[in-house]
Amino acid sequence: MHYKQWNELPEQLQNESVKEYYQLLKKRRTSIYLKRILDFVLALCLTVLLSPVMLLLALCIKADSRGPVFYRQQRVTQYGKVYRIFKFRTMVVDADRRGPAITQSGDSRITRMGKLLRKCRLDELPQLFNVLTGDMSFVGTRPEVKKYVDAYTDEMQATLLLPAGITSRTSIVYKDEDEVMEKYLKETGESVDEVYIKYVLSEKMKYNLQYLKSFSVTGDLKVMIDTVIAVLH
Question: Is 110 strand, coil or helix?
Fold first, then answer.
């Protein structure tokens, strides 16, 4: 995890709304470096411990449907860097071309194995590789595809000051995001992309921005514990 001076930030981040968050995080640089060390050590240990589980899941995915084990898609992380996220594939091949980037409740593109993986959030396990490379953190704003990042307001750009995360307080609150999307789609009659940007993304960002204001390593640990509890529940 690298730290940039204000004048080194991408142009879209150099606005007054972001500056407030930048100054807050600047005072917590030690915690940010500690966060990276914790991320790397924990990701390395979990990768080793969970490798048999990931191998078993990979075999189940191959047996369930045609296509690769992993799903890799371009997402946006710290300072607007575009990277390729690792996930277990939960949808049919070429799902991106058959519908929107956001899935809906009962999406026909999701495979049988994919439904189980998503329910237990096991499709996120390969993101341990992204944490090891530094593109992601255990806790942080969930990474979006570029077209949704392009819709960010000036203040939302502040979430790009830290690496994207596997989980967050937002992820816990919106664990049933498919159902929320379905509700707005029925109420508005708008497209999936319009509903996500106008209603869901803006609401999620309130939690993401609050995370930046209250960022701490102990806070991250609490979010990780709460995520495990939410998944088990």
Answer: strand
